[in-house]
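Problem statement: downstream parser choked on a complex file, so we are re-checking the raw output for the cytidine-5'-triphosphate run. The parser issue turned out to be on our end (a line-ending mismatch), but while we're here, posting the original submission so the record is complete.
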Amino acid sequence: MRIVLGVGGGIAAYKVASLLRLFTEAGHDVTVIPTEASTRFIGTATWEALSGNPVSNSVFDDVHLVNHVRLGHEADLVVVAPATADLLAKAASGQAGDLLTNTLLMAHGPVLFAPAMHTEMWQHAATRANVETLRGRGVAVLEPASGRLTGADSGPGRLPEPQVIFDAAMALVQGQTDYQLPLAGRTVTISAGGTREPLDPVRFLGNRSSGKQGVALAVAARNAGATVRLLAAHMDVPPPAGVEVVRVETALQLREAALDAGAGSDVVIMSAAVADFRPAEVSDTKIKKRDDTADPVITLVRNPDILQELVQQRNAGAAGAGQLIVGFAAETGDSQGNVLAYAEAKLRRKGCDLLVVNHVGTDKVFGQDSNSVVILSRSGSEPQEASGTKTEVSEAIITRISFELNHVSPMA
Ligand code: CTP
């Protein structure tokens, strides 16, 4: 496929190098057209080297090739990233002052804008009107991601992740008018890994959680277009790129981070293995074995149930009414009941909207790359099974969450 990649003059231009790589590695022939302003951020040499094609932003280069007409005509797809407020305005008003705006006027195939700018610019009535005009003409304009921006500010205006833009572009080419990714514009908080409850400066009570499932969920949510906050307890795997990471150690720290991040999130997924108990006392010094006193006895106290508190916070109106809260249940059946019966009781007790049930044993789930789960819903719909690699299971969970958010009215 022949792709024209227009690059606008914003700091996010550097991320577009990764987008270009995604296109070329998928076998597409990409011509990059940077605006004059964008070359202050990334020089044309970078685009030439990465695309393998000549790069110009002037209608007066290679005039005999009539590039200002030809590039738009021949392109199967035009993608503009970052689409600045200036570029959106120029495109909406049909200006043709440089090679990129000429190409946009000549484009015959689908056109996708991936905006990036400061929140106030994105929310300004002028930009809103320009976006509406473009969308009204059938041009695809992605929602920007939310999060930290270039200065001290944060909010909607971040360039969506390169993979997100790539997926949206491919969906657009396949004729999907519903090109917005299912979690575009949504914020998803995910806890991952296992908490560690200190006994003394060198010892802790921990668990076998590797964090792999939580990280896979973060990747799936990010790829579905969400802004992802990963609350990372102890994990054996590194956090993925393109997500905000908050490191925590204990259940109490996780509680604080989860209630804080959760308040501003559309979805909270508690996939962390939270210690139900912590030592009642934490010694400031290393506990020694001594012959003259009895061996120590560790007294445990209960940790707060974070999932339940998140539900209470939502129900008290401190988070959006449509917020979706997802719990995980690690269950082992016993003589008193089977895994699903225990899980259904847990779903009712915790009050979350979805409960992802893992059947655990010492050889199952923890640290493994594959998984098999059942998703239970508070609305009482049929249990949904998902199995495969943790990536596949995570994609199924995120698809289900997107469905609940986009098609099911909020549950009170
Ligand atoms: N969880 C939590 N806070 C806790 C304990 C667990 O938020 N103090 C969350 C986990 O992240 C998970 C869900 O609750 O999403 C279920 O955890 P699990 O340990 O399976 O359930 P428990 O509440 O410990 O119930 P039980 O001990 O009866 O199995």
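For whoever reads this later: Residues 87 and 319 are 35 Å apart (CA to CA).
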